[in-house]
Amino acid sequence: MKIAIVILNWNGKQLLEKFLPSIVKYSNFENVEIYVADNASTDDSVAFVKQNFPQVKIVLNEQNGGFAKGYNDALRHVEADVYALVNSDIEVTEGWLNPVISAFEKEPNTAIVQPKILDFKNKSKFEYAGAAGGFIDKYGYPFCRGRIFSALETDANQYNDETEIFWASGACFFIRSAVFQELNGFDEDYFAHQEEIDLCWRAKNLSKTIKYVGSSTVYHVGGATLKEANPTKTFLNFRNSLFSLVKNLPKNKLIPIILARLVLDAFAGIKFLMELRPAHFLAIIKAHFSFYKYLPKMLHKRKKSAKTADYYIIKSIVWQYFVLGKKKYKELLK
User: Fold this and answer.
1) Domain 3-220: which CATH class?
2) Beta carbons of 220 and 118 less than 8 angstroms apart
3) Is residue 226 scored above 80 in pLDDT?
4) What pLDDT, on the 0 to 100 scale, is given for residue 138?
5) In whole angstroms, what is the distance from residue 131 CA to residue 114 CA?
């Protein structure tokens, strides 16, 4: 099985200096190739890679199309059985590839795999973007085993298992190249954030399996490109989540779920105002106007995919977290 590790870079020389050595060190196998896909950087990160890591291949994208377009453009130039899409702020560990490759080899229907993602800044904690595998609630709000909203669990080996999940984190995302091509890659209208949830949902609509493999561990800085406190991230997360609902919800759930979600988003906006964060309140308003603008296009995309009825395990993560005070994944299942 040929593996291509592809690191998307945009003006990330400092990140490449810090994290590329671990990937090179622990991915030195005959069937593994490493690529840096550069999104039209204006710093000298490409020159740095060429000079210091001649074994790493370079793919030069013509523009910074964000995460979605950046990977779509780059992967057209990469030949492999499995793509490993790895953020430039990921530190990998010895043996990280072996359990993942084994999962693909043992299970032909497994299309996407995520390893355990811990926080680089506090390695005993799970990291926000993915933790131990992702799910969404009935209204499309994402959460993870090991992370619900801002509550991060300590890693006590409670998620060292191998289990099916709903979505895998784009921070460290393994996918069979044939499935990526069948799905026509990421939706470029997302630009960045939650495009991996949409891709996983579309894979689920094709009856593909998405797995979490807890015996493989990586560490993620998180927010290295766009900080959590940035209103742009709020805008993208709220808008793109609505995109995914329109494209993938079962027909009988589409209108009631979208209407309910718009109301819930309004409450989120009020919460931001009460926290004296008006920029995030405005970001939600902008997200909704952008969603209305793109709605005809998303409805057209919806026609290209069969819909699944079993997309959630929790009705409302908002209710469970903010009203019932449940901060850990295992508490949700009681």
Assistant:
1) alpha beta
2) yes
3) no
4) 96
5) 9
